[in-house]
Amino acid sequence: MRKVCASKSPPAGEGSLRWRVRYRFAQRQQMLSLGVYPEVTLKQAREARDEIRQQLRNGIDPSAARKATQAAAAGVDTFDAIAREWHRRQSKTWSAAHADHVLRLMENDLFPWIGQRTLAIFSPPNCWPCCVALGVFKQTTLKSHRLKSHGTA
């Protein structure tokens, strides 16, 4: 991903130019629109491209991040909000120490990865690679299995 390209967007009759950037994430090539040409300058498009590069370096899918940001602005429930509500209800049946432990696990290891995803784009198979990655980086396979069980309950 070295450059930002301007391309015609459908329908062909209108012929508007859009700034787009192509990138690869999870072994898939994807394209993200940065805006319409006269409204978004080349400098702004390049700055947006640099932000996308930074997200990719941090292991964040720019398309999913954009969808999550738009959903949060629209007031759609995120995984973080739903998980905290689930924890609040479940903690009544748990000991205080266990409730604190589960919440700490989710805050430290689960929410940074998938906390801002909406339920519309979230599914348990999407959670498992994150849990495996946590197990690899932190060398705690048991923790990733616990997170999977809490994340899909």
Describe the model.
- This protein is an alpha+beta fold.
- The protein folds into 2 domains: 55 residues, Double Stranded RNA Binding Domain, CATH 3.30.160; 79 residues, DNA polymerase, domain 1 (Orthogonal Bundle), CATH 1.10.150.
- The chain is built from 6 helices and 3 strands; from the N terminus they run E-E-E-H-H-H-H-H-H.
- The chain has a 3-stranded antiparallel beta sheet.
What is this structure's SSE topology?
Layout (H helix, E strand, L loop, with lengths): L4 E4 L8 E9 L2 E9 L5 H16 L4 H13 L4 H12 L5 H19 L9 H15 L2 H11 L2
Antiparallel strand pairs: 1-2, 2-3
Helix pairs in contact: 3-4, 4-5, 4-6, 5-6
Mean pLDDT: 76
Percent of residues in β-strands: 5-15%
- Spans of 5+ residues with little confidence (pLDDT < 50)? none
Globular, elongated, flat, extended or rod-shaped: what is the shape?
elongated
End-to-end distance, in Å? Answer: 39 Å
The neighbouring-strand order within the major sheet is: 1-2-3
**What's the CATH topology label of the largest domain?**
DNA polymerase, domain 1
What does the main sheet amount to?
3 strands, antiparallel
Tell me the number of strands: 3
CATH architecture level-2 label of the largest domain = Orthogonal Bundle
